[in-house]
Every structure is written in structure tokens, then in C-alpha cells.
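Quick one: structure for this chain?
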Amino acid sequence: MSKVLIVSDSHGLTKELEVLRKRHLDEVDLLIHCGDSQLMPDEQAISGYLTVRGNCDFGEGYPMEVISEVSDRKFFITHGHRYSVKTSLRVLNNKAQEVNADIVCYGHSHLLAADMIKGRLFINPGSIRLPRERLEKTYVILDLLPDKIKMAVFESNGREITDMAREFILKE
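Got it. Here's what it folds into:
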């Protein structure tokens, strides 16, 4: 069993990323940042996060996308701007199928979302700086259990948004 913290679109925030890392240090196995940190890769605030490059990240310091495996679950991580995620998840789903991902993490739209598409879990943690369509500045923690995935959503201050909790069963 593993836990994965997913955050995105922090747009220059530093203290908040450090607080999240410190708050969940002992409970999560992986920290993911889905891009638009607007920080240089060597900045202390982003240290420890598996980070991809967003459309507001400049320089070559971050990869455009990453594939990582945690608890036998294949993660595909991207910012989403190259996959038109503000329009639909169709193009991103095609890429997820191509790389055979179980879980897809993306940002860009600043919209908190969790969708199951053809047995794959798509997670957008929202934004901890500029959320859209809700007031809460959010991030997500996935609990990777053998038979399911539990999703918990938190405000940047650490308060869990309990009505957003979900459970998912991935494709076999």
C-alpha cells in the first residue's frame, strides 16, 4: 500500500509547497507536481516533488511528461496543455492508452476533477493558488490499496473536503 500526493498550478508559491511536503512527509510515498510551479528545479520549495513542465514554466529543467510506477500502478504525469484538457480528456485518454497508464495526473485547467475513463483514473488536483469553479485551493492524496484507490481532497490549509472523497476500482 502506498499513498501519493498530487498538486498542480502553484504558480510561484513556495511556502505552501514546503508546508505540504512537511505535513505529509511521513504518510506519502510520492509527491507529484503537475506543472506550472513557476519555480526553478533547484529551488528548495519544489525539492522532493516529481515535477513536469507546464505552459508557465520556462527553461528546460523539467520534463514535459513522466511515467512512474507506484505499488504496481503506472502513473502518467503531464501538465495537460499539450493534450487540450480544457476542452476534453479525449486526446489525453489516447495518450494514456498508448502508454498503458493506470492513473493519469494532470493540471492546467485549475479545475479539481476525478474521472474514470475506460478503467483508467484521471486526476486533476485543482490549484493551490488560483482554483477555478470553487473557492478551495486544493490538492489530492491517493491511497493505493490492492483492490481499489481511495481519493482524499484537501484544502491547502490541510482541511479535508470530506464530501469530495471517492473510491475507484481500476481495470483488470
